[in-house]
């Protein structure tokens, strides 16, 4: 029998707030975290807006000297992980053996900003001015490594790098570790901090970013007038725990992770497979893994990037997988408020999925004004919806044809 896995702690750093519940409160109320870009020189690029983390006080979570030796994405991961561990009321080494706690934190790009900065120093001033911590500052696995060091987790330590599916894949892969009995607890999620000149220039030149200069309306998933995503940053971390272990210590349970599905498009490096064929397989695999019928799903937290093909093909995939029940589903994209946080986004959306179950609230898709042909599901336009939510399916897709689907359900004994 598969071991059951529940979520007992959450932590987040986002463009909407520096903790999970502040972020969730704004999400429920349809508040956007997108604004004028300040982290890069906007004179050099044609994009002037971004979803940036604001007023992040790293000294609350780590020693300033140590912080200078790590990338911004690792700093976010440490802060979110410490918040999640505190929320779970767990002290590693006291409440659980360190060897039975693992870390699996994904990042799509890692410390690109730190790499850009050090490369510029190398070109302008030579080798001697390059920071000796350059390599560990930018390699994507280092967030997981730093969290392991900071929290004392000595179990499996890993990192999924699957572009914008990294956070979701990391949670799903960590789920499997506990199911197999290789850990009692996993610190899992995703982190990203790549709002830089090069990132923005690259995404903009491939026409992936919105050219809408208005931060309040630029991210508009499923709307006919969508024209690309808004780049964001942040981190989302959950504490996954084997059910009996959680019950034995009287832990608070947000919900149960019931299913995980992943697939590859084998189609194109950036464009999803036609009709969302790969997404269909990921969703079907997750439903089968969870032993849940399509009719039992109440809400889908969509990948919903506000790009033409993603929103069209994800809608087509949902219709194919859910059949007539697709018309009864609520489907929303919280990227309309957070922007697209790349490798962090699937993990933060997992937290939104859990809080949707806990509070019986489905967050809205803001900026939805004009329906598009073929995009005719209930996208929860502009205003949150009260609903008894038992099961949530959360999608994350990434460049390279990576598809990841997580299923969460209300915990029942």
UniProtKB/TrEMBL annotation:
Keywords, comma-separated and alphabetical: Acyltransferase, Fatty acid biosynthesis, Fatty acid metabolism, Lipid biosynthesis, Lipid metabolism, Transferase
A Pfam family that the UniProt record links to this protein: ketoacyl-synt
GO BP annotations listed: fatty acid biosynthetic process
CDD domains cross-referenced by the UniProt entry: KAS_I_II (cd00834)
Single GO MF descriptor: 3-oxoacyl-[acyl-carrier-protein] synthase activity
Keyword set includes Ribonucleoprotein: no
Pathways involved: Lipid metabolism; fatty acid biosynthesis
Cellular component GO terms, alphabetical: cytosol
Residues annotated as domain Ketosynthase family 3 (KS3): 2-410
Active-site residues per Swiss-Prot or TrEMBL entry: 164 (for beta-ketoacyl synthase activity)
Record-listed E.C. numbers: 2.3.1.179
InterPro entries hit by this protein: 3-oxoacyl-ACP_synth-2, Beta-ketoacyl_synthase, Ketoacyl_synth_C, Ketoacyl_synth_N, PKS_Beta-ketoAc_synthase_dom, Thiolase-like
Swiss-Prot/TrEMBL catalytic activity: (9Z)-hexadecenoyl-[ACP] + malonyl-[ACP] + H(+) = 3-oxo-(11Z)-octadecenoyl-[ACP] + holo-[ACP] + CO2; a fatty acyl-[ACP] + malonyl-[ACP] + H(+) = a 3-oxoacyl-[ACP] + holo-[ACP] + CO2
Free-text function comment from the UniProt entry: Involved in the type II fatty acid elongation cycle. Catalyzes the elongation of a wide range of acyl-ACP by the addition of two carbons from malonyl-ACP to an acyl acceptor. Can efficiently catalyze the conversion of palmitoleoyl-ACP (cis-hexadec-9-enoyl-ACP) to cis-vaccenoyl-ACP (cis-octadec-11-enoyl-ACP), an essential step in the thermal regulation of fatty acid composition.
PANTHER family xrefs: 3-OXOACYL-[ACYL-CARRIER-PROTEIN] SYNTHASE, MITOCHONDRIAL, POLYKETIDE SYNTHASE-RELATED
Family according to the record: Belongs to the thiolase-like superfamily. Beta-ketoacyl-ACP synthases family.
Entry protein name: 3-oxoacyl-[acyl-carrier-protein] synthase 2
